[in-house]
Amino acid sequence: MTATAKQAMSPTTAAMFQDYVIPNYGRFPLSLVRGEGSWVWDDQGNRYLDFFPGWGCNLLGHCPEAIVKAVQEQVAELIHVPNTWHTEAQGKWAKLLSERSFGGQAFFCNSGAEANEGAIKLARLHASEERYKIITFEGGFHGRTYAATTATAQPKFHQDIGPLLPGFCYAPFGDLDAVRNKIDNETAAIMIEPIQGEGGIRLPPEGFLQGLRQLADEHSLMLIFDEVQTGCGRTGKWFAYQNYGVEPDIMTLAKSLCGGIAGAALLARREIAPSLRPGMHAATFGGNPIAARAGIATIETIERDGLLDRAIALSQAFQAKLDPLVEELPFVDEVRISGLMIGIELNVDATPLVGQCLERGLLINCTQGNVVRLLPAMTLTDGQVEEGCEILIDVLRQFSP
Ligand SMILES: *Cc1c(COP(=O)(O)O)cnc(C)c1O
After folding, report:
1. For a disulfide at 31, which of 9, 44, 234, 278, Cβ 3.0-4.6 Å?
2. For position 4, what pLDDT does the model report?
3. pTM over cut 0.70
């Protein structure tokens, strides 16, 4: 049954959350039980088309066959061993990532924030002693640990939790002069999402990333790309920076890295990587055999099924459907698309649209209050694009802000 009028979720589940789970998330009153590709089902048997699967983690859709198989095999062989040992899987995973990016070396961990912590530490370890400052960008998002939260230049995430980590300064996204003015003798690195995700699918202005590379080279700074949301094929290239002809010194990955399994990585250029010397950083579960097998299977699936090209084709289909909305609807300001990162910016509050689409059986996201965000799977069918866009466009047309 496709979702129309919603029944409430199981009262037992609701009660357990009410009593025992810290309410730090805004949650929909739905309990999800099963997923397949871009479909997901709740515990009442309602089916939803998911244009935001796993908050960007499920780039291959829900429960991709190759990931399920790799994990099932691995979990019966060896679940976890610490990084005092080698595993073939972790070595192979690092090799595959290195070969598809800039030939560096990998450190594995479990979440985007943790990868960014590692990147910040590495940048400071590599820089000469007096250099410790990191320049990040307004509207950016880097995660919720203290260093990552501090790097996240959005005041709403800084309220009441200070003091933050010293040594961060913020520049407007896209403003090269502002960055230049912030660089001094204590600057160690520039850290940026090549395309801002949580910030509202903001694409870098022409020449901006190249300009950052140049500044970093002139002043011997590390250029860190946080590709937690943009990486691993999301934009139709392996990594978003490959759309702009600029290479970072350090790159962080998580979200879709392991096809929905938790896993994260930091890649660093070979000259820099050894600065993360033994004893200075670690993650107990980092690069564990299950994440590694899932990570390998993710890369192999994307290549075997030609999903980078498919992502571009899907992107064009979304673009063709959504671009005309700017002309048609006065409250739609802009449609921004890079591969399967899709943002529709309204000049009014867009949050009600999420519930309205949910009522019609379509899962979407709203970020920054006024940007409808879609991070759909590369495995969407043409029919699913049609069906989902029809609902979304219909809901937008009936929207009276
Ligand atoms: C989601 C996200 C993070 C944080 O990742 P976690 O796994 O939640 O720690 C960091 N950076 C970017 C760009 C993200 O989108």
Report:
1. 9
2. 47
3. yes
Instruction: Find out whether the beta carbon of 143 lies less than 6 Å from any atom of ligand 1.
Output: yes
Tokens of 44: 């009442």
Residue 61 Cβ < 6 Å to ligand 1: no
The three-state secondary structure class of 33 is strand
Ligand 1 contact, 57 CB (< 6 A): no
CB of 152 shorter than 6 A to ligand 1: no
Find out whether 206 and 196 touch, Cβ atoms under 8 Å.
Answer: no
Say whether the peptide bond before residue 172 is cis (omega within 30 degrees of 0): no
Using the structure block, give the residue that is written with the tokens 């202005």: 205
The answer to whether the beta carbons of residues 54 and 48 sit under 8 Å apart is no
> Token pair for residue 153?
């230049």
CA angle (387, 234, 310) in 5-degree steps: 55
**Beta-ladder partners of 332:** 346
Q: What is the position in ligand 1's atom list of the atom closest to the CA of 254?
A: 7
Domains delineated in the chain: 65-304 (3.40.640.10)
Point out the residues of the chain with pLDDT beneath 50.
1-5
CA of 141 to the centre of ligand 1 (A): 7
The packing angle between helices 289-304 and 65-77, to 10°, is 150
State the DSSP H helix or E strand holding residue 191, giving kind and residue range, or none if neither: strand 187-192
**Structure confidence by residue, pLDDT tens digits, 34-80:** 999 999 999 999 999 999 999 999 999 999 999 999 999 999 999 99
CA distance 299 to 319: 26
How far is Cα 117 from Cα 123, in angstroms, rounded to an integer?
10
In this prediction, residue 382 carries a pLDDT of 98
Contacts of 190 (CB under 8 A, 6+ apart): 134, 135, 136, 179, 212, 215, 216, 221, 222, 223, 224
